[in-house]
Amino acid sequence: MKLTTEQIDCINQTLIAKGLNFDDLKVEVLDHIATEIEEKMQNANCTFDVAFKEVLEKWEPEFKPSFSGFIGFTNPRIMTVKCHKIVKRQFLTAIVTSTLLTLVFLLFVRNSSLGLFLADIQVTLRLLVLLEFGLVAVAWILIWRSKHQTTYGYLMKKKSAGIMIFLLMMGIGLFPVKINHPDVKIAFVSVCAAMAYIVITGIYLKLAYKHFEFVKKISLVKP
Amino acid sequence: MKNSQLYKGSLNTIIMKLLEENGKMYGYEITQKVKAITAGELNITEGALYPALHKLEAEGILDVEIEKVDNRMRKYYKLTEAGEKETINRLSELEDFIRNMQSLVNPKPSLEF
Questions:
Q1: What is this model's ipTM?
Q2: A28 vs B50: CB contact, 8 Å cut-off?
Q3: Does residue A56 belong to the interface with chain B, where contact is any CB pair within 8 Å?
Q4: What is the CB neighbour count within 10 angstroms for residue A124?
Q5: Domain count, chain A
Q6: Same domain for A36 and A119?
Q7: Which of B66, B68, B69 has the most A C-beta neighbours within 10 Å, making it the best mutation to test the interface with A?
Q8: What residue spans of B1-113 are helical by DSSP H?
Q9: Which CATH number covers residue B91?
């Protein structure tokens, strides 16, 4: 027993009303609910309304509003859990990577012959930051205009909005990276902060890439 | 899930094993397959299944495909190349675990005089 287009749309609208407006999640949740309903209608010989009510009741815990400190916003539980895992993994990656890069800079660049090229290194870092700023700005606009919403696009827009100001300020030299500061603690914090912003921005660009990757997959499906 | 704490750590491996055997599967199909294989003993809930699938996808172990089925879209999960290699490792670990648990729960009597 296959559901009609109207019945599928009814499930779709219910999911949207419950805050599940992101296609990468909505596609699989809708399909799971629809398949369960079809099976119930077949096996229990009940109507769509009865089957839908029973299946939806089973799914209610997944739609319950849930907050995660890593994301900073409240969403249906199933979405919060997915986003939390993505952001937590990225946060840990950013900390480890930026710390390692900072140590490389301080051990091999500072007080070495490479220190002679410090001005060039700082210009390169600023150009890299400006490039990232440009890419994030373009990705932001493209995701905002996108026909589809995904959890990746949602996270990218929410999390990168705050970082863009700092990227611009770093890029135009308002926050110089003090690699050769006499106090090694200040040098460490300065370089680590810069590395963290660069790495985190790279992660947000990866989120944008995953958004476009999913949109491409869904767009290839003939209507 | 019955005895959920016992199965909790194995869910990812169960999913990976099923995908290794069946190529690509969608969420509901995975729950029904597990239910059928275990004769109803193990019921994977939506709250357990989808976080596991999303985590495996984020780790690069699974990839997704979208297809049109009837009048809706369906998201299939399949193992990536890295996922296929990881599946072998995890199954090996699980087999060792099962063997060790069997030894602990049903120790063979030693014949010492």
A1: 0.88
A2: yes
A3: no
A4: 11
A5: 2
A6: no
A7: B66
A8: 4-8, 11-22, 27-37, 46-58, 81-105
A9: 1.10.10.10
Between CA A198 and CA A90 the distance in angstroms is 13
- Range(s) of the domain holding residue A50: 5-63
Nearest CB partner across the interface for A5, out of B26, B67, B71: B71
Among B28, B58, B70, the residue with its CB nearest the CB of A36 is B28
Give the tens place of pLDDT for each residue, A147-189: 899 999 999 998 888 888 888 888 888 877 777 788 888 888 8
Considering only the beta carbons, identify the residue of B47, B64, B67 that sits closest to A221: B67
The verdict on A221 touching B (C-beta cutoff 8 Å) is yes
Residue pair A20/A83 in contact by the 8 Å Cβ criterion: no
Q: In this predicted model, what pLDDT tens digit does every residue of B25-77 receive, in sequence order?
A: 999 999 999 999 999 888 899 999 999 999 999 899 999 999 999 889 999 99
Q: Cβ contact (<8 Å) for A27 and B51?
A: no
User: Do residues A171 and A158 lie in contact, with contact meaning Cβ atoms separated by under 8 Å?
Assistant: no
Q: Is residue B44 part of a domain?
A: yes
CA distances from A103 to A110, A179, A181, A221, B14 (A): 10, 11, 14, 47, 41
Give how far B21 is from chain A: nearest CA, Å: 21
Closest chain A residue to B53 measured between Cα atoms? A82
Residue A97, token pair as written in the block: 């990577």
